[in-house]
Structure formats: C-alpha cells, structure tokens
Specification:
alpha+beta; DNA Primase, Chain A; DNA primase DNAg catalytic core, N-terminal domain; 5-stranded antiparallel sheet; 9 helices; elongated; disordered N terminus
C-alpha cells in the first residue's frame, strides 16, 4: 500500500488551516524579521543570502501564503517551506507529503493513532515524546557528507565525522554548515547544531526549542577519569580524531552558573577525577 493511499490529506485544507504566519511562528526561521502584518523578510535559510528571502501571508495563486528567495531557487507555499526546512530538496514529492502530514496533525488534527501537537516550534529531531513523526534523526545523519571538501580545513578524518554522526549539510536549516548531533544522556539525538565553516556569525545555529545552555557537547561519551573542557565542538572532534576522549564543550560563548552546575553533575555521575580547561 502506498503512503498516500494509507494517509490521505487535503492540501488545500491544510493551507487554509495553517496560515503562513502560523508556519513562520513554529518554524522560527533564523534571521527572518516581520516587516508588516503580512510580510517577513531576511536571510534565506537555504542559500544564506542576506535580505533576499521574502515570505507573504497572502501570496501565491490561492492567496494562502508564499515564500521566495531572490538568490536561489527556493520558493513555494507553506507546505513546500516546511518540506525544505526539514532538509528535503525543492519539490520533493515525499518531503512535501510528509510536510503536509505534519501540518495536518499540528493544525487540523491527526487521524487514527495520531495526536494533535501543540503549536510549538520545531526545526529538527526532538527528544522522546517530542520527536516529530516523519523526521528521523538517524536518517537525517545519513544525509550528511563527512567527506565533503568544505570540511577539509578542519583536518578531521571523515571516519571521525561518521562516528559522531556528523558531516556537511547540503540542505535544510544547516545548509552549508557542519551539522553536529546534540545527544542526551540516554543516547538519543535531540537535535543538530550547525557550526559555521568560516569566520561568520553566528558560529553556531540551533534548532528551535533546543536550549544551548541545557546541553554539553560530547557529554554522552564521557567516562571516568580526567575530563577536558574546550571552547569549540570542532575541538572535541579533533581530540576524538587524535584518540583523546573525555573532551566536552559548552555551546554558548558565556558560561552561566547553571552550566557549571551541569558540568559538576556530569563529573559526579561519570566519576571524573579532575578537569582541565583549554
């Protein structure tokens, strides 16, 4: 049985129920600012072009909303926008259907065995109950390119990227960045952070709903003994590439007392005897 026959969705009904404004709210696209009650403009999440990405509340053929980039081919309705933000190519039939299904469940209500989801932002895999159907973090990791030439400057072996389920993102919100998994203590991937490949700001981008202060990169791999704290996730991978484990880093420039408490708790839990900073 095909996917479409197993779960039928009225695309027009989805677009009427999920306005472009609603979609913009839950996607929380970085660098996008509201210019009026019906329009948003800012950095394109796909080509990273500045002030070339425009979203309209009442655009499109049926006046239910549209988006367009003036520097790359990205464009379409709110269903297409969700599909592309989930890492799918433009006009990808399976990606579009998955996006329509997600919007249907969020704004209209799911069918048998599904649950309507509260209006909460989500642009990457979510932990446990929050993980959204149709976006598998393991599958997403397989789309990343650990041997991409853009990563050569970091001097890290592609096998290390593979071991860390990371690599160059060729599409989606992390497009053009090194995508790194944020892993909870139970080993579940809760999201992917995008690390800039060059000296650009922000150096790290995060999926909506993920609090960078709540996670320590590499903490899931910590075992007893000496613990090393570095400043950059890339340094954690470089250390691993060199055979040096028990290396972690915070995901923020400023370190809060809560983060230090989390680090202390991690050391107690994993029975780390000492700590050094670099």
């Amino acid at each position: 049985m095909s996917t479409t026959s197993a779960y039928r969705i009225d695309f027009d009904a989805v677009k009427r129920a999920a306005s472009m404004g609603d979609v913009i709210t839950f996607l929380s696209i970085p660098g996008l600012k509201q210019k009026s009650s019906h329009q948003w403009k800012g950095v394109c999440p796909f080509c990273k072009g500045a002030d070339c990405f425009v979203v309209s509340q009442d655009g499109g053929r049926d006046k239910t909303g549209a988006f367009n980039c003036f520097k790359c081919p990205a464009g379409g309705d709110q269903i297409e926008l969700v599909s592309m933000m989930r890492g799918n190519p433009r006009k990808d039939s399976q990606g579009v259907f998955a996006a329509a299904k997600e919007l249907h469940e969020r704004f209209i209500g799911g069918g048998a065995g599904t649950e309507r989801v509260s209006n909460r932002s989500d642009t990457s895999p979510q932990p446990q109950k929050e993980r959204r159907q149709g976006f598998d973090p393991e599958a997403y990791a397989k789309t990343l390119d650990p041997a991409h030439e853009a990563l050569a400057a970091f001097g890290i072996d592609p096998e290390t990227y593979r071991d860390w389920k990371s690599g160059y993102a060729g599409s989606g919100v992390n497009r053009g960045r090194l995508a790194l998994p944020i892993v909870a203590k139970d080993g579940a991937i809760v999201g992917f952070v995008g690390r800039a490949l060059k000296d650009e700001s922000p150096a790290l981008t995060f999926p909506n709903g993920l609090d960078p202060q709540a996670h320590i990169f590499g903490s899931d791999r910590v075992s007893g003994g000496h613990l090393t704290l570095v400043r950059d996730p890339v340094d954690v991978l470089r250390a691993s590439d060199s055979g040096c484990e028990n290396v972690v880093c915070f995901l923020t420039d400023e370190i809060s007392p809560v983060q230090l408490e989390s680090l202390a708790a991690l050391m107690d839990e994993r029975k780390c005897s000492s700590l050094s900073f670099y």
